[in-house]
Amino acid sequence: MGTPVLVLISADPRTSHRANEALRIALGILAGENEVGIVLRDKAVTLLEEDTDDLVDGDDIAKHLSTMVKLGQAFHVEERALPAIAPHGRGLILIPVSPAEIADLMARSDRVLVFQ
Amino acid sequence: MGLQKRKLGLLLSTHPDHPNLGTCLKLSEAALASGIDLYLYLIDDGVRAVDDDRVLTLSRRGAKLFVCAYGCQRRGLPVTDKATYCGLVVLTDLLNGCERFVALN
Q1: Touching check for A35 and chain B: CB below 8 Å?
Q2: What is the extent of the structural domain holding A49?
Q3: Is the pTM above the cut of 0.90?
Q4: Residue A50: its pLDDT value, please?
Q5: What is the pLDDT of residues B67-77, one digit of tens each?
Q6: How many CB pairs below 8 A link A and B?
Q7: CA distance B33 to chain A (A)
Q8: What DSSP assignment string belongs to A11-46?
């Protein structure tokens, strides 16, 4: 079963503030007690790195991730991008997904917000 | 079932220079011409579009115009009486309450 809202992020947090903004929006929707699916693909997976100092708005990203961990939010991560990062080590729930599975998640969601 | 009195939500997060603004305007004009209730939410770089006369015309024609207050604050943009300045709670309400929701990111 899909989620009511799916937020798919592929923006590169090392060069664009949009990855953090997408994460902020996802958190805002989640805080409204909505079920939210988050998919990270391509360079957006670097959002999950332990060290966010090199990311645009890195302090905000760290705070958002910490809150999401407390809320038990899972991250669907493009499986081919996962080995490229050193995952954030504080209890993030990571679900590796293939491109076909990402497409399936999108198809089964009521709303899809894509941030490239 | 006709589209009269149905609700369309539009999210615009890109700078006014991006082609998304043109798409947003055309979709909005078509929706209003069809009698659809239109809810337009400007966020991130899209908040700058609140100064665009074409967006304000949509508001005068009946569109409900919302602007992310946080996005304005981060960009040093003033709060004016052109729109309703709000937060993600309103965006969430639109996501839940509109029959159709289109995100232009």
Answers
A1: no
A2: 5-115
A3: yes
A4: 84
A5: 999 999 999 99
A6: 44
A7: 24
A8: S-TTT-THHHHHHHHHHHHHHTT--EEEEE-GGGGG
